[in-house]
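User: Hi! I'm working on a homework problem where we have to compare a predicted structure to a textbook description. Could you give me the structure for the chain below?
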Amino acid sequence: MRLKLRLPSSASQLVALSDDAVVADLLNEVRGIAELQHASDIQLRSGFPPKSLDLSNANAKITELGVRSGDQLIVSVASSRIELPEEVKKLTAGVGISLSTSSPVPELETSKPQNTSTKDDSRRPPEVPCGPDNVVVLRVMDDDNSCLFRAIGYALLRNLDTMHELRSLVATAILEDPIEYPDVVLGRPREEYCAWISRSNSWGGAIEIAVLAKHFDITICSIDVATGRVDSFNPNRPTFIIVMYSGIHYDTVALAPEGIEGTYEFDQTVFDNDAAGQQVLTSADDLAALLRKKHYFTDTAQFSIKCEVCGSVFKGERQAQSHSDSTGHTRFQEIS
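Assistant: Happy to help. Predicted structure tokens:
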């Protein structure tokens, strides 16, 4: 059995195992790679959207986990880093530095409410044609309350793990500009808002998109799946990115070669504001219509949502967010 490993550095490496290899054998091979020798917590994902492999049973055969010869496994390492690196401190100070691009698109988790009865069972990401050889495709973000920051991080920096840095950037911009972001716009005192948005369980929205679009001097087009409305933040810039909003979740829109599945190496996520870019935006509208037909959205004012931590039930996003703010609970599930 031969497997292709996608490492945190974005490099790839092939490993060979016997057909009856178990989880322990696979982890030994992974930990033998120089880049990962000092990693304490290794996680593996496969498929599309990439799903975490259960590595808890060291004696389980990896074929029982659904892994087959020729598969690509995405390797990630858990991090407990809290201190921001120097390049991020410079970024939040306004210096335009590109962050690393080490993370592939992650799996779909269950920390946001979702209508599972209408979910597409296909493993193929939703896509629509764009020109003769390309497709506009939805790149699904983790449902971890940081989906907006992941979506923008992937589109702009090709990195899904810059959530904390982008949150810090937003908080810094708000604190430094009381004219643009007064308390009345934020709905609470600025210092309180900045402390709130810096927390990993706080959902980002229009204010955060506007801040990031202005900072990176780019237009961010947000397409609402339910209505088809396109909101352009920091409009008329030379380049733009597209995020898809489904009521309580943001995903990234990418342009990819037709027929390329399960890989993101050829994704284009930043588009020029020209005829070719407008064609991508038109296809993104078609993609939103396809998602709307699949009911890939949630009515945030009327849906019922249950806290998986304490079992409390709420109506609408506002009540759920208030509960999260007061309790710190972040795991919710939409219920009928």
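For your comparison, note the following. The chain has three domains: 2-77, 86-293, 304-335. The two ends are 44 Å apart (CA to CA). Good luck with the assignment!
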